[in-house]
Amino acid sequence: MKCRLCSRETKNESKYCELHDKAYANIAKKFEMWKKASGVSWEEYLNELVKNPFTGVWAKEVAEQLLKEKE
Amino acid sequence: MEKYTLIVTEKPDAAQRIAEALDVKGKPRKVEEKGVPYFMANRDQPLVVVPALGHLYTVVHERGGRNYYPVFNFRWAPRHLAEKGAKQIRMWIEVFSRLATDATGFVDACDYDIEGSLIGYSILKYACQDKDDVAKRMKYSTLTKAELEKAYDEPLPKLDYSLIEAGRTRHEVDWLYGVNISRALTLAANRWSGKYATLSTGRVQGPTLRFLVARERAIHTYVPTPYWSLLTQVEIQGKTYEVDHEKKTIETKTEADTIIENCRGKKGTIEKIEEKRFQLSPPIPFDLGALQSEAYSLFGYTPRRTGGIAERLYLSALISYPRTSSQKLPPAINYKAILSGLSRDRNYSPLTSELLRTEELKPREGAKEDPAHPAVYPTGNLPERVLDESERRVWDLIVRRFMAVFGEPALKQSMRATININGHHFYLRGRRILKEGWTRFYKPYIRSEEVTLPPIKEGETVQLKQITREDKFTKPPPRYNPASLLKRMEEESIGTKATRADIIETLYSRKYITEERIVVTDLGFDIIEVLRKHAPNVISVELTRQLEQRMDKIQNNSEKRENVLYEAVNQLKPVLDRLKQSESTIGEALSNAIKRARMQERIVGDCPSCGTGKLMILYSRRTKKRFIGCTNYFKNSCKTSFPLPQRGTVKPIGRPCKGCGWPMIFVRSKGRRPWNLCFNPSCPAKEERRKRLEMQALQQRNQK
Predict the structure, then answer these.
(1) Contacts of range B82-88, beta carbons closer than 8 Å, 24 or more positions apart
(2) Which of B449, B473, B497 is the last residue of a domain?
(3) Distances, alpha carbon B292 to alpha carbons B397, B483, B677, in Å
(4) Active site positions of B, annotated
C-alpha cells in the first residue's frame, strides 16, 4: 500500500510510509508536553504545528493530513 | 649525457623547490621534454629532479567491460589507460622511463605520507623498471632549503614499504568497493529504465551520506516544543542592565505569567555577589582537520579549499606539510629560528620578540601524533611572492596559532550578582580579562568581550524596570556544514585526513547533497534507503571503521595487505549477491529517484500567474522546442508559458531577478558569453535597459 502523503510504500498496516510514520509518532508523543505547557487542544496543537517554522516538513504534512481528516 | 641521480617528486612546484635547494648555485636548469618540465641541478653529482602529476598509476580492472559485477581482479596501470581526461600522463611516464635508463641513482622525494610514498613507489617500480629496490627516500616536513639539504644528505636507505603497502591497500580496497557497488546500482537502474545514469557510492562515501540522511530525517520529522523565558531589566545607579531569571527555560506559560505577576512593580535586593577566576589554556597546534575547521568558522572556506590553500603555502615553503594528524611540535623544528624568521615581518615582530625574550619556549600540545609529520607550523620564511587574499589569511592564521601555543594561559574573571525580587532570583553577570596571556598572539581570531558591572554591594536595592515573557520553541538539530561533517568523519575515524574533504565534494558533485548548510536531495535519500535495505554493511560506520583500523595497522607493520584485501572481498561477496537478487526492486527505486531528481533540476520556480503551480523547463511534443511552462497546465488550470533560447544549455539559477523578483535561468551557448536571463516579458529592468539603449542610439545619431 502507498503512503497517504507520498509515493513510498507503507509498512505494517500503517497509513504512512516509514518516514511519515516517524513524524506521526513524534506528533503524538509531543502532544502531552504541549497540553501541559500551554493547555492547547489536539486541533489547536495541529494548527500550531502547521504554522510553526521549526516543524519538520514531514511532520507538517502529517499535521495537515490529520486536520483534513478531522474536517 | 653524464650519469646522474634521478629524483622523483610529486608536483612541478615541489620539483622546482627541491632542485633550487639542492643545486650548489641555487639555479637549476629547467628543461622541457614532450611538455614535461624537469630540472637539472648540480651538487655532489648531477641531479635530475622530475615532477609527477600526483598519481601516474591507478587501480584498474584486469579485463575490460563495464557492465557487469562482481569484479575482484585488478592491476595497477597508467592512469591514461583508465581515465578519459588523463591523456597527458602518457608523456610523463615516457619521460620518467627515458630518464631512468641513464640514471645511476634513484631518490624518492615525494611527500612523506601514504599518498606520496605510493606515487614515488609506482613511478620507480613501473615507469623506471623496478628501481624501487635501489631507491633512497628523502624525508622532510617543509620545503625549506635547510631541511631539503638535510633530507638529501641523510636519506632513508630504502623506500618506506609500510606506508606504500598501506597506500596500495587503501586504493585497492576503495576500488573494490567503489567499482562493485557503483556498478550494481548503476546497472540496476539502467536495466529497469533503459536509461543510463552513473550512480556511485564508496566505502567512506556511503557511511558519510548516511550521517547526513539521519540528520535530515531528524529535521524533517521534528516537532518543536514550546517553552518560555523572561526578558528582564533592572535599574542600578541610573543605568539599565539585563538580568537572567534563575530558570533559563520555563516549561509552562502559567509559570512564566506567575513570575511576571509576582515581580512586576517590585524592588529587588542584591543578595549575593560571587566572583570566579578561571584560566584559559592556550590552543593546541593545528592538525589538518583543526585548520580546516577554524578556517571555515573564521573565513567560511570549505575544507577542500583550505586544504588547497595550505598545499600552496607548503609548496611556497611558508608552512610545514599540512596533511598531518599530529598536534605536536617537537623542539627539533627549532622554535627560535622560526620566530626569528617571522620577526622580519613588522606585523609579527612585537609578538615574536616578546616570545623570544622568554627563557624557555614550550608549546602546548594535543594528544594526537603522526609518525610522519609534526603539526602544521610556519617555516619562518616570509612570502617571496604576493599571496592572494585567501592564502594571506590562512598563513596569518597558522602563524598566529603557532605563536599562541607558546603563550601563557589567559586569566579571566566572571562575576555574578544574585538579585532577589519577591522571592524570585535573577542573575546580573559580568566578565573581564585579568591577563591576556596567549590571546594577545591569536588576535583577531579570538574575541573576548568584557561586560563591566557597576560598583554594587550586597544588600543594595535595585529597581525592576521591565519584565516580559518571551514565547519560544525548541529547534531541530542543526544541519551539517562541510566543516562539521568533516569533524564528524574524524570522530568516527572514517576516511583519512587526505581524503575526507574530497569525499564531501564528491557528495556535492553527485548531487546527493546541496547547499552550504547541507541538505540531502531525494536522490541522496533514495541511495541510502536502497543500501540500508539491501546492503546495510556498505553504509555501516562500524564496519568501515574496522576496515580503516586494519589498514592503519599495515602502516605499523602489524597487518598484511593480503589479509585486508581477502576480508574486503569476503565482505563484498554476499552484499553483491543480495544486490543482484533484488536488482529489479532496486532498479525501480533508483530509476524513480533519478527521474524525480531530473524533474527537480528543471523546476525554475513558483508560477507567478496561478501561484500554486511550478514553472518548469518543458519540451513541446510537436515542435520539440523547449519553453517554460506551468505544471498546472497538465491539470488544465494554468496556461502560462514563456519562450526560451533554443541554442545551448539552460538551467535554473535559483535566484530571483532584481528587477521583478521572477525566477531566472542561466544560458550558455557556443560562441557567446554565458548570461542570466529573466524571462518575464514585462520586467521593469528590461524596459529600463531598452530605454537606455534607445537613448544611447539617439545620442550617437545626434553626434553624427
Answers:
(1) B82/B58, B83/B58, B88/B35, B88/B53
(2) B473
(3) 11, 7, 37
(4) 321
Q: Which residue among B221, B225, B226 sits closest to A59, beta carbon to beta carbon?
A: B221
Asked if B223 and A26 come within 8 Å (Cβ–Cβ), the reply is yes
Q: Which residues on B lie below 8 Å from A58 (Cβ)?
A: 220-221
Instruction: Report residue B1's pLDDT band, with 50, 70 and 90 as the boundaries.
Output: low
Using alpha carbons only, give the angle B635, B639, B642 rounded to the nearest 5 degrees.
130
Which residue in chain B has the smallest CA separation from A59? Answer: B221
Residues B628 and B649 both lie in one domain: yes
Q: How many CB pairs under 8 A join A and B?
A: 58
Range with lowest mean pLDDT among A16-20, B311-315, B680-684: B680-684
Mutate to test the interface with B, among A38, A40, A61 (most CBs of B within 10 A): A38
Q: Distance between CA B393 and CA B313 in Å, rounded?
A: 11
A68 in B contact zone (CB under 8 Å): no
| Count of domains for chain B | 5
CB spacing of A37 vs B474 below 8 angstroms: no
For the segment B354-383, the average pLDDT, to the nearest whole number, is 93
> What's the rounded mean pLDDT across residues B332-336?
93
Judge: A59–B219 Cβ closer than 8 Å, yes or no. Answer: no
Same domain, B626 and B640: yes
Per-residue pLDDT tens for B123-180?
999 999 999 999 999 999 999 999 999 999 999 999 999 999 999 999 999 999 999 9
Is the CB of residue B158 less than 8 Å from the CB of residue B137? yes
Q: Which three cell numbers stand for residue B669?
A: 551557448
User: Which of B217, B219, B221 best tests the A interface by mutation, with the highest count of A CBs <10 A?
Assistant: B221
Residue B334 amino acid letter:
N
Range of the domain at B677: 605-692
Alpha carbon of A71: minimum distance to chain B alpha carbons (Å)? 22
Q: Are B438 and B407 in contact (CB under 8 A)?
A: yes
Q: Which of B221, B253, B474 sits opposite A58 (nearest CB)?
A: B221
Confidence of residue B522 (pLDDT cuts 50, 70, 90): confident
Interface with B, mutate which of A7, A17, A33, A46 (most B CBs under 10 A): A33
pLDDT for res B149: 95
Closest by CA to B49, choosing from B108, B97, B119, is B108
Same domain, B354 and B424: no
Write down the domain spans for chain A.
18-70
Contacts of A42 in chain B (CB under 8 A): none
| pLDDT (average), residues B227-252 | 93
Q: For residue A19, list chain B residues with Cβ-Cβ distance below 8 A.
A: 217, 220-221
Distance CA B294, CA B181 (A): 35
* Cβ contact A54–B476 (<8 Å): yes
Verify that B274 and B423 share a domain, yes or no: yes
Mark whether B500 and B556 lie in a shared domain.
yes
> Are B574 and B641 in the same domain?
no
Is the entire prediction scored with pTM above 0.95? no
Helix (H, G, I), strand (E, B) or coil at B343: coil
Judge if B397 and B459 occupy the same domain.
no
- What is the CATH classification number for the domain harbouring B49? 3.40.50.140
In a domain, B701, yes or no: no
Of B220, B226, B473, the CB nearest to A58: B220
Query: Letter for the amino acid at B250?
Result: I
pLDDT band at B284 (very low <50, low <70, confident <90, very high): very high
**Helical (H) or strand (E) element with B461:** strand B461-473
- Residue B312 pLDDT: 95
Is the confidence at residue B683, as pLDDT, over 80?
A: yes
- Which of A33, A37, A59 lies nearest to residue B222, judging by beta carbons? A59
Q: By percentage, how much of chain B surpasses pLDDT 70?
A: 100
Domain assignment present for residue B698? The answer is: no
Q: Does A5 touch chain B if contact means CB atoms closer than 8 Å?
A: no
Residue B62 and residue B128 share a domain: yes
Residues of B in contact with A36 (CB under 8 A): 251-252
- The ipTM is 0.97
Q: Which residues contact B10 (CB under 8 A, 6 or more apart)?
A: B51, B52, B54, B110, B111, B116, B119, B120
